């Protein structure tokens, strides 16, 4: 039975979405093509109708999940972002969480193309955070960018360190609590709203 172009595109998107979750849960090298296709409900042989290589899928899945993470944080102020990001819920759900926290270590050992995908995702995240950062005064753009880059590195690192500890470890929770409190304390107070 012949598959329509629309169905082929839907199948490809489903494979990318499935890969995105599995890569975040198991790492790029922790998922084989056969396992990935089985999880998506397709045969192993169908993979090469959609992708030239696993590396191609890795880059597309990373780009998709980085964009989805960004979409999920739209409209959040920086303190709200930190509270949601540096949380036990996020720590315990890598498959549905941030790609940077789940796969940055893996990406460092991958192709220049995949690294470029991550760099683009980091830039987009920084731009979104910068647009939501309230300083209460006019701050130079370089200063705002530096503050958001510092904060992003801290939130990603907090999740990575916490995940490296056993799930029931008191240290896993301590890392999250201390880092979340310190990151939020380092943010400037929100500007007071002027009476109307």
Automatic annotation (TrEMBL):
Domain of life assignment: Bacteria
Keyword list, A-Z: DNA-binding, Transcription, Transcription regulation
HTH tetR-type domain segment(s): 9-69
TM ranges: none
DNA-binding region extent: 32-51
Molecular function terms, GO-annotated: DNA binding
Record InterPro entries: Homeodomain-like_sf (IPR009057), HTH_TetR (IPR001647), Tet_transcr_reg_TetR-rel_C_sf (IPR036271)
Coiled-coil annotated residue ranges, if any: none
Name under which the protein is recorded: TetR family transcriptional regulator
């Amino acid at each position: 039975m012949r598959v329509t172009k629309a169905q082929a595109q839907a199948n490809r998107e489903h494979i990318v979405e499935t890969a995105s979750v599995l890569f975040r849960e198991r790492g790029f090298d922790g998922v084989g093509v056969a396992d990935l296709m089985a999880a998506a409900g397709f045969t192993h042989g169908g993979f090469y109708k959609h992708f030239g290589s696993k590396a191609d899928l890795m880059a597309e899945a990373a780009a998709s999940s980085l964009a989805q993470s960004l979409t999920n944080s739209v409209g959040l102020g920086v303190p709200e972002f930190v509270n949601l990001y540096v949380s036990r819920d996020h720590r315990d759900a890598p498959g549905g969480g941030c790609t940077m926290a789940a796969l940055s270590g893996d990406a460092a050992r991958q192709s220049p193309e995949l690294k470029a995908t991550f760099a683009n995702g980091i830039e987009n995240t920084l731009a979104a955070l910068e647009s939501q950062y309230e300083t209460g005064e006019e701050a130079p753009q370089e200063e705002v960018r530096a503050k958001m880059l510092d904060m992003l590195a801290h939130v990603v690192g907090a999740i990575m360190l916490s995940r490296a500890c056993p799930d029931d470890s008191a240290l896993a929770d301590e890392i999250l609590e201390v880092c979340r409190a310190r990151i939020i304390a380092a943010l400037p107070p929100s500007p007071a709203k002027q009476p109307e």
